[in-house]
Amino acid sequence: MKLWIRSLYCALLVLCLIPGHAFAQVEIAAMPTAKRAQIEIMLTQELQLRLSTAKRIAGQAGNAGLKVSLDARRGMLIIDLSKEYVPYGAQHITAEMEDSTTQLANTASELLRGIVKFNGVLIQIDGKDIDKYFDDKEFIKSIKPTLTTGAADKVVVSAGHGIYYHYGFNDWRAQRDPSNGITEDFITPGYATELHNLLVQRSDASVYLARSIGTHSHAPSDEAWWKLGARYFLQEAYPQVRGLWLSYPKSTDALRERNDDIMSRPKYANYLGANTLIHLHTNAADPSATGTRAIYHAGRAADQKLANNILCYMKELIRAKDIYAGYTVPVEAEARNNLAENSRADMPSVIVEVGFHTNLNDALALQDPVLRTASMKGVEKGYRLNSEGKTACEPFKIESIPSASGPHNSSFTLAFNYRGYPQFPIKAKMENVNCPIGSTCTGGEVTYETKIPSPLSATFSCSGDGPPRTSKWRTILTDGDEVKTTPVEYSVTCGSGSSRQIFSEKRPAASMQTN
Predict the structure, then answer these.
(1) How many helices (H) and strands (E) does the chain have?
(2) How far apart are CA 472 and CA 53, in angstroms?
(3) Which helix (H) or strand (E) holds 456?
(4) Dihedral angle, C-alpha 243, 248, 249, 254, nearest 10 °
(5) In 3D, which of 132, 105, 27 has the Cα closest to residue 343?
(6) CATH superfamily membership of 153-387
(7) Does residue 340 contact residue 99 with C-beta atoms inside 8 Å?
(8) pLDDT by residue (tens digit) across 8-40?
(9) Mean pLDDT of 356-381
(10) Which residues sit opposite 296 in a β-bridge?
(11) 3-state secondary structure (DSSP) of residue 55
């Protein structure tokens, strides 16, 4: 990413504060018109350079232009491409066009990230939404699903990309080039398998994978089945349902089976009558871009809620691991309009970009089973809570621990009021912060094996005699996924005749003894 252009944006917006200090993002609508115009000019110049120097798509004119604008009403960044961008004779959005427009969208998005607050990136061609520029209504009508026996808990998990046959080079190849030691096509299946298992175990969902998990050889390619794109798995599984895996039967494009592969994923979910479609990818941009992203189709509120929920709990679960405590996970998902995986789905559909394979640190993290498990636990949790109608982001935390008191030589209850949706079992660890002179304070730990609504209860024991004495304590809760709450302090008084006492025969979790 070009640091000079980000610095200039910052200067234009008068956001350059003391080095190392955070600054608030500016809403597009709150930007002065003149400054917004300057940003638009700078972005147009930068993206035009990217477009002009990028490898040209076959049939594309050499004088394709673009213009960037910031839509204050919708809070969207719009990239409007000239009609020369469209390859000669193109009847639909191809995989190459998706990649090209996504690269432009990613560049613009990452340049503005943390500086300008926007809802997403829209791609237009000659002033029209890219999806409406092509007159493919008959095509869409011809691929309507024929199977409509969907269940409320049916989820399709799609691992991004996979090997396909290239008719130009007459060989089998991955859809993504190697980057920092990984190839997206071959790393996403492990994430899909992880998510599949979590959805079955924790969400009790019926889960369908869009790509094969087979280790046996696919005869035409001589590669293991798990490496193949979804198109070939669906061709094998549904040979009579040609519309699932053959979207362009008359196409002579060298990349026609790659185009088929993109379309096959939402078609499969539509055909099954699934209620949710989740695509797992790794991302690409300039090397400094880092972290998770979630993308939904612009204008689809249900998809947006699902995407935001997924991000919420990916952040919670990923950052629970000390090594990834600073991993970038945005608060809000981003809208796009150029991605068929989302736009062609008849149900809420989200693209989850776990990390950037173009970033060295992300690439290393993407190969780490710790990140894989934590991130997919977050996706599953986001899906599960969303399906239960719990769409407000609510990470696990202690809301309060009221001070407690009781007579000497008694046991009484502490109440740990928590918020969020922890994975049980939960462990509560009680540590003494300040013990009165002449007393002995002993902390402890208690485990709650089964799901218990707030509050959690623990037993505190007072022994000895004399005047009332107050000790200070702190408690931290840790759930079954190692998500830890911020410690909360509270006080306990022994020797008080408070009516709040609750005598108990349970073994105390913490105690104070007056010597």
Answers:
(1) 13, 26
(2) 65
(3) strand 456-463
(4) -140
(5) 132
(6) Zn-dependent exopeptidases (3.40.630.40)
(7) no
(8) 566 565 555 444 444 568 899 999 999 999 999
(9) 98
(10) 335
(11) coil
Read off the pTM: 0.93
**d(C-alpha 86, C-alpha 352), whole Å:** 28
For 19-54, the DSSP string reads TT---PPEEGGGS-HHHHHHHHHHHHHHHHHHHHHS
φ, ψ of residue 2 in degrees (nearest 5): -80, 115
Q: Are β-strands 120-125 and 116-117 bridged in parallel, bridged antiparallel, or unpaired?
A: unpaired
Amino acid at position 342, single letter: N
33-53 helix and 3-12 helix, angle to the nearest 10 degrees: 170
pLDDT value at position 111?
A: 93
Dihedral (C-alpha) 134, 136, 140, 141: value to the nearest 10 degrees?
150
Best CA proximity match to 514, nearest among 474, 447, 469: 469
The amino acid present at 72, given as its one-letter code, is A
Q: Give bridge partners of residue 349 from the DSSP assignment.
A: 277
User: Is the N-terminal amide bond of 189 cis, ω within 30° of 0?
Assistant: no
Q: What is the pLDDT of residues 266-323, one digit of tens each?
A: 999 999 999 999 999 999 999 999 999 999 999 999 999 999 999 999 999 999 999 9
Which residue carries 């399906």 as its tokens?
Answer: 387
Whether 153-387 and 3-128 are alike in CATH topology: the answer is no
Q: Tell me how far apart the alpha carbons of residues 205 and 202 are, in angstroms, rounded to a whole number.
A: 8
pLDDT in tens, 234-281: 999 999 999 999 998 989 999 999 999 999 999 999 999 999 999 999
The distance of Cα 359 from the centroid of its chain, to the nearest Å, equals 17
| Cβ contacts of 49 within 8 Å, gap of 6 or more | none
CATH topology of domain 397-514: Immunoglobulin-like (2.60.40)
CA atoms of 143 and 342, how far apart (whole Å): 15
Give the distance, in angstroms, between the CA of residue 191 and the centroid of all CA atoms in the same chain.
13
Is the pLDDT confidence value at 499 over 90?
no
* Residue 46, C-beta contacts closer than 8 angstroms, at least 6 positions apart: 2, 5, 107, 108, 111
d(CA 209, CA 160): 11
Q: How far apart are CA 358 and CA 178, in angstroms?
A: 9
Half-sphere exposure of residue 15: CA atoms within 13 angstroms, side-chain side:
19
Per-domain residue ranges of the chain? 3-128, 153-387, 397-514
Q: What is d(CA 208, CA 1) in angstroms, rounded to the nearest whole number?
A: 38
Local structure of 105: helix, strand or coil: helix
Measured CA to CA, the distance from residue 404 to residue 235 in angstroms comes to 66
Bridge partners (DSSP) of residue 460 are 412, 510
CATH topology of domain 3-128: GMP Synthetase; Chain A, domain 3 (3.30.300)
Largest CA distance in the chain: 93
Mean pLDDT of 446-468: 95
Estimate the crossing angle of helix 256-272 against helix 230-237, to 10 degrees: 60
Average pLDDT over residues 145-160: 75
